[in-house]
Specification:
binds adenosine-5'-diphosphate; alpha+beta; 3 domains; Nucleotidyltransferase, domain 5; binds magnesium ion; Substrate Binding Domain Of DNAk, Chain A, domain 1; about 25% strand; Substrate Binding Domain Of Dnak, Chain:A, Domain 2; elongated; single chain
Length: about 625
């Protein structure tokens, strides 16, 4: 269950902040957490069900930045302003990447060979750190959006061969994205953790991690002993991956269609690339693939695909052999082989690796997610080991006041750090209202009746004013001891009233959890209720204003107009009784439409009256 502790002595509420695990990949990135209840690592998914955020950043002419799936289509249509593979540039100088310059479709600055590279987009220059920070920000936002709590701490993974400069660059990118990077861990280590390896200190194992991603291949040989991971050797090819498998299909099809080049037809080229990737992915689970391309039927069988990519896969096996040699090991010394990276879904890859290592490979954990999942495992270990350091005083539930219609208006969202302060202005609903009641609640539900009441008081003695004119400022203040002070002040008069709430008894862990669970369970219902209450509140206000208006300006309206208005008011009143949000909104709109010309007429009268009476302005 969620680790929420309450210090009864001080009334402060403590909860270790959730630390996320992030796989900042060359092609794809994602964020994972340990589920607070199941204790299992899970990748955070958006509504579309996808956990993967393509590591692509697009800048438009107005300086807007898009990241992920939204940026990906621009790779072909706007390549100069679309940055992919920023990870390859991390901690690199121009000299380092010179030989691969053709790979990048965007502009890399070459003014000073030895300093770190920058990318030029329009007249702006971006460091790979800034570009990676955009991706990390998108992941942080995703996590905050899904978890509904601030996320500021992360474990980020890097390839085992990353040097200190590259690791530092990754840290800096995290910092720029507002993340405190608690640890940088190796991708193969993360993958092992996701498989539960290394968690038992008595375990001794030698592991091969075969990671074939979108554009890179890494093989790492690790030794785990006493819970410590040692990288015995790494090898790979930084320009070999799933993209090469796509390219093999593209070339095959272009040959069949007798097309030499699609360089001038960006859209077609994009379509063909997407079709090739779709073919590859389909062939991981099917014997053949067929699609339509520019009026032609394109097909490819698994057999042909495999014959096209054998050379590429053999190349990765050459790297494995080198890594084994460097580690001074024989194939029989490897206890476990882990499959990592989306491209290991290709059956021929699995089979070839399995044959080489002479054993079944481990592919049960989703190869796209396994690195992020392992980072989440590491994050959880850190949270557990360093509890004293990570414990933050926070509010475990939102704090707010009751507003019209019994709605909860949150001033301090849950997980606000203590001490803290927040305020908002309110006004009166009725003419001449002399008191305003402040009822304080704690909880996540939209209606105060479902939350816990902490106290209430009345700010009385407000001088008689029309509704909406008094300005009442309500401040919530939580001091370092967790004591909440609520103060209300009428700003025109300076009238002040306050209350101090000492949580003599806090909620138990279970109660806090129950409230959080309820807010999730009832979220949909609450949104509907809130919408209804808001519609009702608005309708009631319109009715009251209309009533006032009618009694004051009866003389200006015809009998028919008076009748129509009365009917419209009655219809709205009935809609309110029926608690039908759409009907209420419709009838409110109808009443508004009907009375708008009356209001204009009254206004005209008032103006002409003012003109006649001249002296009124002096
Ligand atoms: P990286 O670690 O380089 O960021 P990933 O591990 O996310 O990349 O791998 C991305 C690659 O995996 C892409 O080339 C994608 O086409 C490929 N891929 C994803 N799913 C499949 C599949 N079912 N079959 C074959 N390749 C796949
Ligand atoms: Mg990867």
């Amino acid at each position: 269950m969620a680790k929420i502790g309450i210090n009864i002595a001080t009334g402060s509420l403590q909860q270790p902040e959730m630390i996320v695990g992030i796989d900042l990949g060359t092609t794809n990135s994602l964020v994972a957490i340990i589920h607070p209840e199941t204790k299992m690592p899970i990748a955070l998914k958006e509504f579309d069900g996808s956990s993967i955020v393509p590591s692509v950043v697009h800048f438009d002419a107005f300086g807007n930045v898009e990241v992920g799936a939204a940026a990906k289509p621009f790779l072909e249509t706007d390549p100069a302003n679309t940055i992919f593979s920023a990870k390859r540039l991390m901690g690199k100088s121009y000299k380092d990447i010179q030989t691969h310059q053709d790979f990048f479709a965007y502009k890399i600055i070459d003014d000073n060979n030895d300093s770190l590279v920058k990318v030029q987009v329009g007249d702006q220059f971006y460091s790979p750190i800034e570009l990676s920070a955009h991706i990390l920000t998108a992941l942080k936002n995703r996590a905050e959006h899904i978890l509904k709590t601030p996320v500021s701490k992360a474990v980020i993974t890097v390839p085992a061969y990353f040097n200190d400069t590259q690791r530092q660059a990754t840290r800096d990118a995290g910092k720029l994205a507002g993340l405190d990077v608690l640890r940088i861990i190796n991708e193969p280590t993360a993958a092992s953790l996701a498989y539960g390896l290394g968690l038992d200190p008595s375990e001794e194992k030698t592991i091969a991690v075969y990671d074939l991603g979108g554009g890179t291949f890494d093989i790492s040989i690790l030794k785990i002993s006493g819970g410590v991971f040692e990288v015995l050797s790494t090898n790979g090819d930084t320009y070999l991956g799933g993209d090469d498998l796509d390219r093999a299909i593209i070339e095959y099809w272009m040959g069949l269609m007798k097309i030499d080049s699609l360089e001038d037809q960006k859209i077609l080229k994009q379509q063909l690339r997407l079709a090739a990737e779709e073919a590859k992915i389909t062939l991981s689970n099917a014997a053949n693939f067929e699609t339509n391309f520019a009026g032609e039927t394109l097909t490819i069988t698994k057999e042909i695909f495999e014959s096209l990519i054998t050379g590429i896969i053999d190349k990765t096996m050459g790297c494995c052999a080198k890594a084994m040699k460097d580690a001074g090991l024989k194939v029989a010394d490897i206890n476990t082989v882990l499959m990592v990276g989306g491209s290991t879904r290709v059956p021929l890859v699995k089979n070839t690796v399995s044959k080489y290592f002479n054993q079944a490979v481990n592919d049960t954990v989703n190869p796209d997610e396994v690195v992020a999942l392992g980072a989440a495992v590491q994050a959880d270990i850190l949270a557990g080991n360093n509890q004293s350091m990570l414990l933050l005083d926070i509010t475990p539930l939102s704090l707010g006041i009751e507003t019209m219609g019994g709605l909860m208006d949150v001033l301090l969202p849950r997980n606000s750090k203590i001490p803290t302060q927040a305020g908002r202005q309110y006004t009166t609903q009725k003419d001449g209202q002399s008191g305003i009641q402040i009822a304080i609640y704690q909880g996540e539900r939209d209606l105060v009746k479902d939350n816990r009441k902490l106290g209430e008081f009345t700010l009385s003695g407000i001088p008689s004013m029309p509704a909406g004119l008094p300005k009442v400022d309500v401040q919530f203040l939580i001091n370092a001891d967790g004591i909440l002070q609520v103060r209300a002040k009428e700003l025109r008069t300076g009238l002040t009233q306050s209350i101090e709430i000492k949580p003599q008894y806090g909620l138990t862990d279970q109660e806090v959890e129950q409230r959080l669970m309820d807010s999730i369970t009832y979220a949909k219902e609450d949104i509907a209720t809130r919408a209804l209450v808001e519609a009702k509140t608005e309708a009631e206000q319109i009715l009251s204003v209309t009533e006032k208006f009618m009694s004051k300006n009866m003389a200006l309206l015809s009998k028919a107009e008076l009748m129509q208005t009365a009917e419209a008011m009655q219809a709205l009143q009935l809609a309110i009784t029926m608690e039908d949000k759409n009907l209420i909104q419709g009838k409110t709109e109808a009443l508004n439409e009907l009375t708008r010309p009356f209001a204009e007429r009254v206004m005209d009268q008032a103006i002409s009256g003012a003109l006649k009476g001249k002296g009124i302005m002096d």
